[in-house]
Amino acid sequence: MLVFVVADYGVGDLAFAEVGQRIVTALPDAQVVPVPVPPFDTVSAGFCIAQLARNPGPPSRIVFHNVAPRQDADEVRPGNEGERLAAARLDDGTLVVGVNAGFAFSFLATDADVRDVEAAAAGSQFRSRDVFPDALADLVTGRAELGQPLEPGAIPDPPERSVVYIDAYGNLKTSWDNAPVGSGSRVTVEIAGTTAEAVASDGTFEVPAGELSFAPGSSGWPSRQTFYEVFLRGGSAAERFRGVRAGDPVRVEPV
């Protein structure tokens, strides 16, 4: 059983090992794959969740996520109370389970039924280790069922025309699904206070080395085929747009 763990613990952090250990204790057949995202980055988490859950994979796979910045309320939180656990079971049987925080379910909720899950909202600072693995196992084994659908408005829409994920190469995946000009035309791209010229193209590598392209990238799923990327051939677009983060608006205009 393949179990992805999408979380902001940090690459190689002990937390991934501790959560993985608890998941395998509760589900002995689990093969845990960590998927790190930046701290408190629910946009990147939501994008990764949908990319993994919506694309072909082995049966009975699970996408578990925990990016819980506890920013839904500014008051004192007794017992380290955090955002509530939620889940969705997709048509192919894929189970997605995690806290409903920020945009974590936003890329999935457009065509999936996200429901409440009965689990303690307080009692541990590290709920993804101490509380959630048992709740996950209960859902997988049938000892528990999904609860009521979340109320309308409980999940925000995905950010439009924004950066949604920055990969290890520095490519900026965006929520643009087309270009404002034809292939081969030049555009200006403005992100995080930096403006640069790029070539709108049908493929990211259809520019010479050192040039930026704005083109369909490698990500998407059947109900959402295209995510345009800002790509610097031979370099890092993230370094070109220094300080860029997931959620930043992306302005693209013809030159």
Q: Can you describe this structure?
A:
- It is a single chain.
- The chain folds into two domains: 2-141, S-adenosyl-l-methionine hydroxide adenosyltransferase, N-terminal (Rossmann fold, 3-Layer(aba) Sandwich); 163-254, Elongation Factor Tu (Ef-tu), domain 3 (Beta Barrel), CATH 2.40.30.
- 44% of the residues are buried.
- The chain has helices spanning 14-26, 42-54, 127-130, 132-141, 237-240, and strands at residues 2-7, 31-36, 62-66, 85-89, 95-99, 115-116, 163-166, 172-174, 186-191, 194-200, 212-216, 228-232, 251-254.
- With 255 residues, the chain is an alpha/beta fold.
- The longest helix has 13 residues, at 14-26.
- Strands 7-8-12-11-10-9-13 form a seven-stranded mixed β-sheet. Strands 2-1-3-5-4-6 form a six-stranded mixed β-sheet, with helices on both faces.
- It has five helices and 13 strands.
- It starts with a strand and ends with a strand.
